[in-house]
Design a protein that fits this description.
This protein is of the alpha+beta class and about 140 residues long. It has one domain (about 25-135): PAS domain (Beta-Lactamase, 2-Layer Sandwich). About 35% of the residues lie in helices and about 35% in strands. It is built from five helices and five strands, in the order H-E-E-H-H-H-E-E-E-H. It has helices at about 10-20, 40-45, 50-60, 70-80, 130-135, and strands spanning about 25-30, 30-40, 85-95, 95-110, 115-125. A five-stranded antiparallel β-sheet has the order 2-1-5-4-3. The longest helix has 13 residues, at about 70-80. The relative contact order is 0.16.
Length: about 140
């Protein structure tokens, strides 16, 4: 029987969505990532509403990721399954400019035994070197 997507209680959902950090809650089923939840702060950081961002993430689109960072992000995703914690920096287009993000993943087990990945993000600012290359 296939594992089901984790169902948050109303209290859990409110806690994660209102956390004061940019946060994604992910679950891996049959080797495939599913973005279950995005905090208000994450949506604000990337300049998207929650529904659009979860749709984007769940269709495995790397369209906003800086092309040279796609492989690193895929490697990070694979590492998150193997290790209790991992992190990386990568560039993501936010409002037309690449920003360097620091992502930190921590694996947790819920009361019912479901494994989730809490990924917190920090925006380290726009990557001016990439912006400058476009003007030369």
């Amino acid at each position: 029987m296939a594992e089901a997507l984790y169902q948050f209680t109303d209290q859990e959902r409110a806690l994660y969505e209102k956390t004061p950090l940019p946060l994604l809650v992910m679950q891996v089923i049959d080797g495939e990532y599913h973005a279950l939840l995005a905090s208000d702060e994450y949506c604000k950081m990337v300049g998207s509403d929650r529904e659009s961002m979860l749709e984007y993430l769940n269709h495995h689109s790397f369209g906003r990721v800086y092309p040279a960072d796609v492989v690193r992000l895929a490697t990070f995703s694979a590492s998150a399954v193997k290790y209790p914690q991992c992190h990386l920096t990568y560039r993501l287009s936010i409002k037309g400019e690449y920003h360097t993000l620091f992502a930190h993943s921590k694996r947790i087990k819920t009361e019912d035994g479901t494994i989730l990945f809490l990924v917190t993000y920090f925006d380290l600012g726009n990557d001016q070197s990439q912006q400058d290359q476009g003007t030369k």
